[in-house]
Amino acid sequence: MKISLNWLKKYVNVPEEISNEELIRLIGARLVEVEGVIDETHKYDNVYVVRVESAEKIPDTHLTLCQINDGGTELIQVVCGAPNVREGMLAVWIKPGAIVPASVHEDAPFVIGKRKMLGKYDSCGMLAGADELDFGGKHDKIAEINPEIAKPGDLLADVFGLNDLILEIENKSLTHRPDTFGIIGFAREVAGILGKKFNEPEFLFKEEVFPEGFLIETKEGLSSVSSNLEIEIKDASICPRYTAAVIKVNEATEEDKYLSEVKILLAKSGMQTVSKIVDVTNYLMLLTGQPLHAFDYDKFLSVGDSGSPKVVVRNAKDGEKIELLDGEQIICNPSDILITANNVPVAMAGAMGGKNTEIDENTKNILLESATFSLYNLRKTQMAHGIFTEAITRFTKGVPAGGTFNVLAEAVREINGKPLELCDKFLNVKPVDAIKITTDEINDLLGTGYDKELIVKTLENVGFMITFVDSKQIIVETPFWRTDTHIKEDIIEEVGRLLGYDNIKPTLPLHATANKNALFTLKSELRDKLSKLGANELLTYSFVSENLLKRANQDLKNSYKIVNSISPELQYVRQSIIPNLLDKTFLNEKLPVEKFAIFEMNKVYQKNWGLDEEAVPIEKIHLGFVVAERKNCETAYYKAKKYINKIFEDYGIEVIYSPLKIKTAETMPFEPKRSAEIRIKAQPDVLIGVVGEFKKSVKNSFKLADYLAGFEIDLETLLANKSHEHKITVTKKEKRDLTVVTEGSYDDVKNKIEKILSDNGVFAKIIPGAIYLPENSTKKHITVHLEFTNYNEDVMQKLENL
Amino acid sequence: MYETVVLQYNIGMQDLQKLKDELKAINGEYAGIRDVPVEERAEFGRKLNEKKQSILAKIAEVEQAAIDEMVEPIDVTAWSGVNELIPEFYSVTAGSKHPLMTELDRVIDIYQMMGFDVIESRQLDDEFHMFDSLNFPKEHPARDGYDTFRTEEGLIPPAHTSTMQHRVLKNFKSNLDEGKAIAVVVPGRVFRNEDVDATHEHTFYQCEGVYVSETCTLGDMLGILREFFEKYYEQKLNIRTQPGYFPFTEPSLEFMIEKPKALGGKKGDFLEMLGCGMIHPNVLKMAGIDPVKYHGFAWGGGIDRLVMLRYGLEDVRNFESGNLNFLREF
After folding, report:
1. What does the pLDDT look like over A241-271, one tens digit per residue?
2. Residue B50 and residue B137 in one domain
3. What is the ipTM of this complex?
4. What range defines the domain where residue B164 resides?
5. What CATH number did the domain enclosing B180 receive?
6. Any CB–CB contact under 8 A between A750 and chain B?
7. pTM for the whole thing?
8. Are the beta carbons of B233 and B260 closer than 8 angstroms?
9. Of A374, A566, A707, B70, which sits with the fewest C-beta atoms within 10 Å of its C-beta?
């Protein structure tokens, strides 16, 4: 939303000592984020009001040779191409050397000069059109100024107050404040921030536009006495209030062609000039936050084909069609709200009017709507059809029902037409919120010491009505435009905000100590360990593609599927970490990085794990690890195993590596013949993870080099089995090497050694050594290094006999 | 890890010839199209193609299985390959920690030092925790599928760590009964359905804070947040606020700090760090905490931004890129 500071200042008196900079800071600190400020204080330098003293057509061209009066002593010659230039008119002249205002913010601003036209006519400066002045509109004529408001030589900026700052407001934090989407509501807040009582514009509370006796009260709202106009609201929850008037429009007047304040304000707020009536409705929306819509009344009658005007507000039928003003054909959803003429759609409520009742130059009478609709329905309409008009932006904040009538009345006055009929249906009248609160409650939550007088004044400044109960308690009644204040905390927010959160002293409460989170500590230690061992920590997305799951040999059906994913790349919740790491391995081998180890610790989800006691999916935290080298013919498995085993060693966890048999989502990419499942030695039924090389088919599908292995372990299992014991032996150790020739596995050898050691009460640490297979032999020579704490020659002998 | 067996459709090698024969037969059937009435030919062709594709897929599967079949087994209990040396770890100089995680660890350390318990946020949650328990009115605009991802089951990868607020309040309520405050921070990964560019990621990290006691005030919230950022940036800081709007806090604020000197900040250069506010009484009530006796405050802000500022990074997409040229810089 764009807010003109000059316009704002018409409604709130800002003391001289508060600079614009300070005012903008205060707005930012106490109302809403100001995203940017557009400085227009020099945009209209050297742009003047002039009188065209003579205008002569240049033969055989569309050009006119003009002599203009800029208030100086000599006339100036300008060549003008616009069809509407004529003797005696007041026009706008851009002096040579000045920048065309519409191009000020462009990369190459257009500087006006003196030049010769058609080789012989000197042309000094330019007579400007509204579009060139950045007031929008078509590039078809020059702007004309009402002689009643200006004279030749006046700076255009002085006539219309154009030396301005435009604030760019971040709408999001005003989601709950529909009242601030109009200059009046915004100004009310600014008054409150400055500690001043806001002067409410009278029209917000009066209805004197209508002749005496024109209106009567009915039980559903106001109505004109002899009214044929009928309004039917099918469901009060989609339309709490609908006010409409039929107005006879005056013929276009001389004045309509002049550049006007309304046209300029619309442009500054980022809106287009359309026609007098539409401009007035838009202007009032910007002023009050209440969107209005004007239908061509005669078209409305003929579309409805019923002779008498009947507005029916209802939900659209599924698939019902309407053509909007912008020519777009809309196929409606049942949550869309339609305004219909005797059930024939004439507008998408809150979004845009229909083509069939558009007002044009022949419009004689209009049906003017001032209403409010369900913000939830309109939010759906907005998203489903991609309609982002200024009106729907306001309606989706929840325009208050209390203001429709008075804004309509003001529109009747601005349009200066004759009201013929009026009808007001107000079905969903909500009681005024009256909130009891004490000064202590306010101060206790904010941490302040504001006295009662200050609190009351602060609230009254922005329209809250206060009744005193006793010395501490007050009752706060909310004005109709505040749809957001219902409970004590809402009032506390008002007080804290308007008086400035930044005036609240930061303090530190005293409280108890905390416990360290063991899992975070573990993760932190692991990232330290692994990075010190030359591995690189990665983060990858939690969402993966169907293709990735398939390449990793995982079952799609075991993944939670995102229904509104950004792309097919991010459609499934990952079941394990490894597939992402394989994907990143490809990327890094391509870079190329010759050799690397990557790991990630993150949460994973599998459908077959089911739900927890809160009925949300069971989650696990895994550590995934992949080691890859572009050129290495050795067995990658042992590299990955070395890394994982280092972790188990450091945490004092004894594990067993046995050939991979089980099939889970985690193990699916692994090659069973070259992988191991890892179990806790003390509790072999507890699986902690898998380590191994990947299936050839998986390697192929990820296009990875042959030297590739990895592991994936469950960190909660690791944490649960972590040992705090740490045996330290300081005795001298006797070291021996032992080689066993066998067809069996390493663990077979190790188990045999352990058996002999324990049978003889000898303790030795077994450290793996080389494994050698002579050519043409099936028997391996497995060497281990033994470190004895109580060496025994006989036992060594027994071992060597193995 | 659960030992649920994933059933997989496997076809033995002996089936390969059979499949190839079937394929041949189908290729033969194409000739029969001449005998089919013209108007049925399209349908005939389509069905035949479907059949052919399914057989081709099965053949591919069998061939894949054959490739895997040829792999030599190894001794998984050993520590090196046959006639190979025991492998070495890579050099410490090659290693790196992810900058986001390093900073998250620092954030957690500071909060723990300040007496906050830490729990991690979920990455898959439900409508109740994400919205209902946080006082989002039914059908509130933020609920519709435009900002939030959803699974087929209606589960939600959370769009903010506030999804944990209700759990924190419920699980730490006993603190209040013992006369202690609830003081918890919740770091975690969150997701937004938005397009990715240099400053936007659909996946990022946030840290939530929740504080409840009998006497805490908005001033305490400002004090705690200032204390945290001063510890994090290791210098005194000026702070500022801005009104905000969240359904689950009232009042709601945006919290800003003056850009630290170490990061090249100038006076008056304020950075929005997080959203915060006094916990809405409905949120306390939902968790079984009496909003008359107790009040609290909560905050939540992005971690990615802290890290980008600290290291002078300009492209948020690097974090999840997995690119070692980037990661090895840390």
Report:
1. 999 999 999 877 777 889 999 999 999 888 8
2. no
3. 0.88
4. 99-327
5. 3.30.930.10
6. yes
7. 0.87
8. yes
9. B70
